[in-house]
């Protein structure tokens, strides 16, 4: 275990199993349709990489980067597009892949923004959900795990751009957050 980690919330094994199940469910729901997976950088990249390898439907990807958090653990509430999609999504079946839904502000913004581009359908898949922290209403179609209100890192999620490479989801020791 990494020396900065206080506890492991979700192990590699638990994540692997759940991602497989999500992949099967999504493949069933989309059956013969092509899915355009829109990954939200950078947090969703590891989840996305594992998820798409569990999809049996024809899949292609695009990426967006948005800023919702500065450095630290508090949301500023402002969402800004840092990198937009490469191509039009008009008439496509779009699946947004996110790392975590916290306040919901980022997703609400993304959903409104992408809907205005006229996709054929738009669904959301998130690895983690922290429902206790929600301030706006967003409808998530696929959730990996519902977790308590704790700041987590690993499997793509960061604290100050660090710990994304941990293969599990963990809570850091308090002294690490206090820096
Ligand atoms: P929201 O807009 O408050 O829902 O925040 C969504 C974004 O905040 C996520 O995509 C993450 O990048 C970041 N975030 C929220 N909670 C956590 C956490 O516990 N660990 C790491 N990043 C988080």
Could you characterize what this model shows?
With 179 residues, the chain is α/β, with parallel strands linked by helices. It has a single domain, classed as Rossmann fold, CATH 3.40.50.2020. It has 4 helices and 8 strands, in the order E-H-E-H-E-E-E-H-E-E-E-H. It has helices spanning 12-30, 45-52, 105-115, 174-178; strands spanning 5-10, 35-41, 59-69, 75-83, 93-101, 121-129, 142-146, 169-172. The strands form 2 sheets. The chain has a 6-stranded mixed beta sheet, sandwiched between helices. Strands 1-8 form a two-stranded antiparallel sheet. Helix 2 (45-52) links the parallel strand 2 and strand 3 (59-69). The two termini are 20 Å apart. The site of inosinic acid has 17 residues, from strand 3, strand 5 and helix 3.
Helix content: 10-25%
Number of helices: 4
Neighbour order of strands in the largest sheet: 4-3-2-5-6-7
Secondary structural class: alpha/beta
Bound chemical compounds: inosinic acid
Q: Specify Rg, calculated over alpha carbons.
A: 16 Å
Corresponding CATH architecture: 3-Layer(aba) Sandwich
Number of strands: 8
Return the average pLDDT rounded to an integer. 93
Strand content range? 25-35%
**What is the C-level CATH assignment?**
Alpha Beta
What is the global morphology? globular
* Major pleated sheet: 6 strands, mixed
Roughly how many Å apart are the termini? 20 Å
Return the CATH topology: Rossmann fold
Tally the structural domains: 1
**Element-level helix/strand string:** EHEHEEEHEEEH
User: Which stretches are low in confidence, meaning pLDDT under 50 for 5 or more residues running?
Assistant: none
